[in-house]
Amino acid sequence: MAKLDQLMQEINNELGSDFYYMLIVGSNGLSIAFLNRIERDFDALAARQSMVNKLAGKVAEKLDLGDVDDNLITNNNSYVLTQLLGDATYFAVLGLAKDASLGVARMLLKEYAQSLWDAIPR
User: Fold this and answer.
1) What gap in Å lies between CA 62 and CA 80, rounded to an integer?
2) Which DSSP symbol is given to 37?
3) Of 10, 20, 42, 71, which one has the fewest beta carbons inside 10 Å?
4) Domain residue spans in the chain?
5) Which CATH architecture has domain 2-119?
6) 71 vs 20, 53, 57, CA distance in Å?
């Protein structure tokens, strides 16, 4: 897990004050690693985000839209960006400030996706 922690810290450093939290979550809804700057119920966040990812996949399949790469939730306080990893049995969840650059965040998650996947113990 040390490698996952290091990679999440690198993403945190890249995003600076726009970074709120990051989790690595299995498709079962259980997080295996997290880094946070703000307090949240990360167990509930991981489980609910897993449900959202499954639903997004079903919608994309039913509408013949192709595979889901990432998912963005926007609310009045922040962004929650999810990036599927590897064979989609794990995903990264990135919580961001409302004024964060989504392009930079997406680019970073895509850039780090393979390294995060490789660092997950399987």
Assistant:
1) 24
2) S
3) 10
4) 2-119
5) 2-Layer Sandwich (3.30)
6) 17, 7, 10
Distance, in Å, from the CA atom of 9 to the CA atom of 66, rounded to the nearest integer, reads: 32
Burial 51-85 (b: 16+ CB within 10 A, else e): eebeebbeeeeeeeeeebebbeeeeeebbbbbbbb
Residue type present at position 67 = D
**CA 12/CA 22 separation, integer angstroms:** 8
Question: Phi and psi for 65 in degrees, rounded to 5?
Answer: -95, -10
Q: How many residues does the chain have?
A: 122
Q: How many CB atoms lie within 10 A of CB 37?
A: 12
Determine what percent of the chain is predicted with pLDDT higher than 90. Answer: 84
Q: What is the largest CA-CA distance in the chain?
A: 40
pTM score: 0.91
CA separation for the pair 11, 40 (Å, rounded): 19
Which tokens go with 19?
């970074």
